[in-house]
Amino acid sequence: MSSIEQSVEKAFTTMASEPTKKVVDLQRDIQEQQAHQVLTTDHGVKVADTDNWRCTESKKNGPSLLEDQIGREKIHRFDHERIPERVVHARGTGAHGYFEVVDDRASKYTFAPVLTDSSRKTPVFVRFSTVQGSRGSADTVRDVRGFAVKFYTEEGNWDIVGNDIPVFFIQDAIKFPDFVHAVKPEPHNDVPQGQSAHNNFWDFAGLQPESAHMVMWVMSDRGVPRSFRMMQGFGVNTFTLLNAAGERHFVKFHFIPELGVHSLLWDEALKINGQDPDFHRKDLSEAIESGAYPTWKFAIQTIPQSEEHKFEFDILDATKVWPQELVPLEEIGKLVLNRVVDEFFPETEQVAFCTSHVVPGIGFSNDPLLQGRNFSYFDTQISRLGINWEELPINRPVCPVLSHNRDGKSRHRIVKSEVNYWPNRKNIGCPVSGEKGGYVEYAEKLEGIKQRARGPKFQEHFSQAQLFYNSLAAYEKAHLVSAIGFELSHCEDSVVYKSYIDVLNNIDFDLAKAVAIKVNGEVPTKPGRANDGKKSKGLSQLDFLPKNPTIVSRRIAILISDGFNAVEMEAVRAALTSAKAVCYLIGPRRNHIRPMAGQDLVFADHHFDSQRSTLFDAIYIPSGEEHVKTLAKNGRVVHWVREAFGHCKAIAAVGEGVDFLRDVVRLPGIDLFVPSRVQGSDEVVTSYGVVTTGKYSISSAVTDALNIA
Ligand code: HDE
């Protein structure tokens, strides 16, 4: 065994915090650069001057010379740095981690060791993305988020190329180019970027009612997640599992975040787009680097092959969920992200997912969206990365690869063999049976007429859109009305905004009326379709509040100015930090701030103008008379606090800080404050938390961290 193979082998059996087999595999290609290392050309010759192009009559007026091969190489490499961005999901960020089986009950359904062998730690690479915007667009736009997972299993790579929403806009892959053209910037002016608030998207959605269910999800709070770490992930399409007895089940894959499912408010999302367009990607890497490893439960829903037709909806229709009441979730695994990438381009940009990448024990269904996807992903990687894209370090499997496929542009692997075909006299690269690990497709009986058509159950589009709407909490419904109202207000063609009201009226009469009034639509006088009042579990985000709310990795701004009480602040900061919240001191300048007399100087991390309340989950205002007077005179700070209050953030204040808070956010006739005591002290703390915006965990957890009695 070579030393690389030995270290690869060792890595596969190591503990959580140690590198996975894939991370070790990547070491072969990682070049650690050292201080004072010498610059060379790409062909390895040391470079003497990288700042001046060779020319005649140096520093006078001589022309630059074509002969300068160092200058030419530098510019030539630069000219070719860009590759085509992904046609959708161009904006994204990725991380390494691992997958573990926590319950081996899936062996009833599959013989795939990745889902059944609890002694394994399978390396993964996950890429999160937005869909509509280009590579440089902002993170917190209203959009679906991609949730693509590459499992580097011992049986080959398995990709779940999922989203944070369990259904899709269309039922048949052949509609995908139409859908993407409609949502992407319009052809005549390339507008808008990173949003679906325009004529063409809503025009398409109105005329293609199968999108109604998904539109409801994207317009709900799901469209503006607080963090990639706080989103669910769904395989969306129906796959199949095959067990050792040769029995087949249909399956849906779910990832459920341990932190709960949380969203931004739309106003926050809009502002963060400008204040920090990299908000989500920074959030992910900061959490991983601080050891707060994002973790998801992995669950499956299964339906035996024999029960395929037992449901009101078609289980192969990607615009439908399988309600949990009918098909319960079984938790079988855990996904953890524990390592950021070393270099963005070769890892996150060059990673290439394919729904067609499955391993023995896992297979496809006849879901018409999945069938098309199985062609599309493989195809698109060729124009993005070239035919040998599966040899790129991030994409190559960790198990042995031997195929008779050869050549093509940018072949990396060097294969030492006299034969590259099968059969051959040396028996190299021979296919093996299923018993020996070969991938054997399930033998499925088919009969019927070849035609261009969809099954009868694919014709119904509104019942699950209604189920979703009915299952939302009142505040979630209100957010949804505002979101559709915002989007339709950005459509200038009245045909578009007026006609979508008809779609909404098929979902819910009150919803249609509320939106119509907002956007100048025709207010309906009777429901387009009765609302049956049915609800289901797991659709509202409130169903995902974590059992033990936590402030781990939440961002807390501590507002300070000269004369603040540093001793008290340090006590609170220590409590928050020990609960693994991340505290930032925000002051009038990024420099030393002078606390009360007799206390040591404190250095502020940022100044009031450089950050905004929207970038934080909670605020704490320490006591100090002079300090509070200074805060009250600063319009930016007053805005900070009012804005945080308006966004229902947790706000803690002590002593004079409480008076300041009261003055700043006073609403006539309403006393919103609940004064309480910090345990073991005489300080009065005021805290205010709101359950209904999905920020329950932060508000209650700040309260816990402060030990408020
Ligand atoms: Fe994709 N999709 N998609 N998609 N998709 C791509 O593949 C496509 C669909 C999803 O981080 C492309 O490598 C078709 C559903 C994610 O690299 C492309 C159809 C779901 C990513 C493509 C769909 C997704 C992509 C563009 C309809 C959720 C980003 C670049 C039949 C389950 C993966 C690429 C990454 C990317 C095609 C529908 C998720 C063009 C034809 C449904 C997360 O191949």
Automatic annotation (TrEMBL):
One GO cellular component, as annotated: cytosol
Xref: InterPro entries: Catalase, Catalase_AS, Catalase_clade2, Catalase_clade2_helical, Catalase_core, Catalase_haem_BS, Catalase_immune_responsive, Catalase_large_C
Reaction catalysed by this enzyme: 2 H2O2 = O2 + 2 H2O
Superkingdom, natural source: Eukaryota
The protein's required cofactors: heme
Catalase core domain mapped to chain residues: 40-430
Entry similarity comment: Belongs to the catalase family.
Entry function: Catalyzes the degradation of hydrogen peroxide (H(2)O(2)) generated by peroxisomal oxidases to water and oxygen, thereby protecting cells from the toxic effects of hydrogen peroxide.
Designated name of the protein: Catalase
Organism of origin: Suillus placidus
Lineage: Eukaryota, Fungi, Dikarya, Basidiomycota, Agaricomycotina
